[in-house]
Design a protein that fits this description.
Layout (H helix, E strand, L loop, with lengths): L20 H10 L14 H15 L3 H9 L12 H17 L4 H40 L3 H29 L1 H9 L2 H23 L6 H21 L3 H25 L3
Helix pairs in contact: 1-2, 2-4, 4-6, 5-6, 5-8
Amino acid sequence: MQQSTRRPPAPAQASGAFPSARVLLRCLLRTWLVGAGFNTRGMQNIGLAYAIDPGLVQLYRDPEALRQARVRYATHYNTHPFWTPLLVGIFLGMERKIAKGLFPPEMLENVRATTVYTLSAIGDSLFGGSVLVFWSLSCACLVAAGQGSLAVALGALLFQGLVVFKALTFWMGFCEGLTFLHRLGRWNLINWSQRVKLFNAVLLVAFWALAWPADLAWFLWLPTGFAFAAVGMILTATGLSREILAVLAVAAYLGLPWLMRLAAGLSPI
């Protein structure tokens, strides 16, 4: 009887195995597409599920366990896209412990309910309202100054910084998990975003000065600068709505000619 030469099938990978470097890289690269499947029901949940799926496939050998893990990422998810690599790293680290039976699956949902939206608020202030504005204003100033090549170089340098930031936060989130979130909280990013916004105000004035079509009389800008500073102090001290203050300013501007004519009519001849 001829002996079969077929090799036995390779043993299935154990649940909770450490994801390979190739799988981690695939997850990291997929985080750049988190907004591609944006929808009004789950927001960025399709992009999150797509980014983390290679890791789930390697972590769970049982089809039912894999299905349950995928379902955990079908719910609502929305945060600043720059934080998604960090969150995917944290979720992968937690899924590895869930697959090993060290964490209950409910723990992941508890972390998501608090972490995602906290990082969303920080990201909107730090990235959307500060860093990206700095990026655009600094490049605009260089272009207005006739330094287009420097603007391209600065944009490329800042983009590379973003790539490194995403890669580092992804790796730190995967390795340190929730511990890294505690360290992130000590960085006081909200206050740093306020400092960047103040510097952006200086860049905005610099751009106006560079792009102004006529000769610039700097002393004529001082009243406007003091007015904006006073408005900022009033808003900070009183908590008034910026929209209401803007409406009052427009009303005062439109009503100023009428007030001047009225004052001229009442003045004695």
